[in-house]
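Journal club prep — side note

Before the paper discussion, L.F. wants everyone to see what a predicted structure for a comparable chain looks like in token form. Sequence:
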Amino acid sequence: MAWRRSIEVIEEDAPQPRTLSLFPEDRCEGLLADASIVSVKLSELRLRRPRQWGACWLTLLLWRELQLDQFWSKRLGVSRKGTHWDEVLFVLVAYRLLAPGSEWRLHREWFQRSALADLLGEDAGLAEIHKLYRCHDRLLVHKQAVFDHLVGRWRDLFNISYDVLLYDLTSTYFEADPPFPEGDKRRFGYSRDHRPDCVQIIIALVVTPEGLPLAYEVLPGNTADKTTLRGFLERIERQYGKARRVWLMDRGVPTEEVLAEMRAADPPVHYLVGTPKGRLTRLEKHLIAQPWQQARPGVQVKLLAQEGELYVLAQSGDRVAKERAMRRRQLKRLWARLKQLSTMRLTREELLMKLGAARDQSRTAWRLVTIEIAAENATFSYRLDRNKLRQTRLREGRYLLRTNLVEEDPGKLWSHYLLLGAVEEAFKNLKGDLAIRPVFHQLEARIEAHVFIAFLAYCLHVTLARRLHALAPGLTPRSVLEKFAAMQMIDVHLPTTDGRELVLTRYTEPEPELRLLLQKLKLELPAQPPPRIAAALPPPTPL
């Protein structure tokens, strides 16, 4: 339809119609003669379908910045009925990033309250429940290809090197009742979520110091940490070649055999790993003779070379103060509780139960107190074990690190070890912002696909974090997504005098704070969608 570049607006009380210009005057000249005039009734203006637009738009930008739209469109293709599976996957990932929940909630509620359909040029059929589930079944065969693709994109975007890698494991549990099919990965094991009553799976993750994930694996819930490292070493070597690379790990992950293999490799695979305090006890007499060195302000180290390795005893002043304050609070609370229990009239069974509860609340302080319970009655005595307290004070804020980087500066080693917080932050985001749990799927393949979708959402999350680190430091990805979520999209319906409707789909203008953030991130909002003429909608049916 030919458009005249102005709209005649009819107001019931106005003596003459006035014209509302949709375009600048200089664009209207010469176009009025061959276009029709559309007259609208302002008194019947209606606003419909408010939906969240800003955060959805930002998520789509991140998806395209990582070129995941191109990656998945080539691999997932289009169904015979015209379903673009890459767009269904984007809906699942955006949902996991912005408002995580069940696929049923996505289908029934959330998709209609978002502007994803507008951004993708699709309709509500994109979020049909069977499409969401079937999309899960198409993903896992492309997992390794995604890892390779993301490594290249992060190298191009952020100039990331992969010479320092962090490795750790976490678990996520299921509130489901066994038995499960034979070979199912949902099993009972050591629970990092303090839910030993639930079956779980283990997630092993490799990230860079910047928090960018390189690979992950879903393992059976009863997998021991120390059995997982060798496979990841081989995978990373195949993926990135043999190069000088440093692995940062927490204690309990590597075994002595794997560390020996890393030292004997050609070229050697370097590592920096935390060491259990039992080893500190064995090395204490050797470390006492070593002088303290200043590694960085507030951090002192002692070095001990032994059998091709370097042991680093690090003491952080800030950590000493923190651990000491925590221990004092616990000990004060436990001492007050013991004094209270000593004055109560209890049966012996009640006393034992209350002492057990006190121990659970103050486990660190409990080790410093000697408690003797009478064999025949409900009385007990308690005293502070000063030898244990003295030993605890000497070890507060101290860490024993172990490495085969014998030529490294101790200050650099300490800085490397602090980077382990990046992988802990990744697990925190997966379980917190991205709500990887609860898992509603029952089939093992779809459970793993659910973890994969959470992984992709975390990739968008951490990509935004890197952008903020460079351009808007101090802001978190979650706070930025919440600011963008304030931008809504709404349909403005204006009835025309000829029985049709002029529909203007518009996103709201950003607030000054968000405009500043857009400027900092060097982002430009797209043009507003063009107006369209539609047949008038029938009035709503009265209830």
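L.F.'s comment for the group: The chain has a mean pLDDT of 85. Keep this in mind when we get to the figures.
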